[in-house]
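Quick one - first record:
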Amino acid sequence: MKTKIYNSLIKFSLVLGLFLPMTGLHAQSWIYDFGQGVGEWATASGTNTTLLPQPVSGGGNDMLSIGAVAQGSGFYLQNPGLPLLGSGSELKATASTGIAVNKFSIHGYTPSKLLHTKFTVLFGDPTGEAGPKAGDWYYFQGAGALYSNTSNASTNLNQSFISLRWTFAPGNILRMAYHNGSSWIDLTSLAGSPLQQKKIYQFEIFGNNDALASDYYHNGNLYSLAADRWDLWMDGVRIFQGLISGGMANNVNIDSWLFAGEHSTTNFATIFIDDMAYSNLLPSNPLPIELVDFTARSTSEGVVLEWKTASEDQNDYFGLEYSTDATDFSTVYQMAGAGYSNSPITYQYLHSGIPEGNLYYRLKQTDFNGDFSYSPVISVRHTGSEEEWGISSPYAGGDQVAFSFGGPEGEYLIEIISLDGRRIYTSSLIITSGERVTLPASLPSQALFLLSVSNGKHQEAIKFFAL
């Protein structure tokens, strides 16, 4: 099964993504990771560009803005945060209690008329519980001064190609709407049921602001987007297609996105944001490299990297890239590919002389004609010795889920849990340290899951994305 899903960063775990063809300098994809830090900004109006990590080259600039401190609200970088959002930091943003607007934006990334954006969110009160009865949170994507200043986002719709609104309502629900350039259209009635507070959702948007129709691939299937239209996916399901764009003119570039919160009278409507990824192209048919596994393991000599392919077509070479912050990668080794192969091949490399701590790796696969693509990102905690208690490098594809285990030999309870709390898989297994565990679990594709391993005294959990 070929990897074919757009990158979505999951901290301290495998990021499953497609091998996206990159044939030009303007076709780029970015992962925006909140890292491991903590902090808050809620005491001064104006803008802030230092609390959050800056995006990588070409990925734009980040900005926070608070409209009015007196209305009580702010931005909080949390670690640990909500358990269902996994390890690492996440952004908690509380809406203003009045008409002033609080915004988190990325502006000025490499522009394009196409877009593909993915993010994970939970709506609730500041503790992640249900309860707020009023307040609006918006998601906008487009271009213009709106994305880099403190102006009210909901009254500047002529700068947005994508305009989504979630409104907190009594009964612990949210009503969702989108703007079609003329008015707000209620999506809740069209969907048949409202969204729920205190529940994690993964939204994915495919947009075409070009003058011509364009295609994209999702889970191996081909979809078409007419000019000036966009599709909305939620939890791996396309819930709306061919939505009309907002007030932004057609056939112009898009280079920014933002979240904005307002009108949260007395109850501090809050959004928790994680796993943000965005691209200025639509996912195309993946390059013909069938990557079946990619792992990293800490040893006393360094980190052992291993990846396996089931087939290769026109594969010139792999570049192994490394990072200490999941943002800035550098090439540490180049290994020749097999060119053309229909048989399984295993590649291995020992990365030595490296610092201890959390390390991140990815593969850059280059074709004979110069086209290249990036693999999933994996992470490992390097301790300078053999791995201790922990799980890493989960990989889901086909009818199996695999992960690496480090810990004492014994019997462990293994559970795979959906983000709405359903147990998809449960089993007790005898596992040895250093083992690559394979589970016979067929999971719904294009969805996030939580992998939990416990022995009654200790528990480890990690998020992963199913192909």
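second record:
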Amino acid sequence: MLVLTRKQNESVLIGNEISVKIIGIDGDKIRLGIEAPDNMRVLREELLEEIGQANRMAAQSQYRLFRAESR
């Protein structure tokens, strides 16, 4: 993992297509601006985990429904 120190309005480039800029700092919160190509999905990690959990629950629910209908 690369760890950097940045100040407000400074950026980090990832490859040639992604830019991450420190937009603001307020106490322990940092606002980031991310510029990336439209075909690249950018998600917060906790949102991705919630989506995965919801998908697993839906799949289990469908499996139970399928088993109940098969009897």
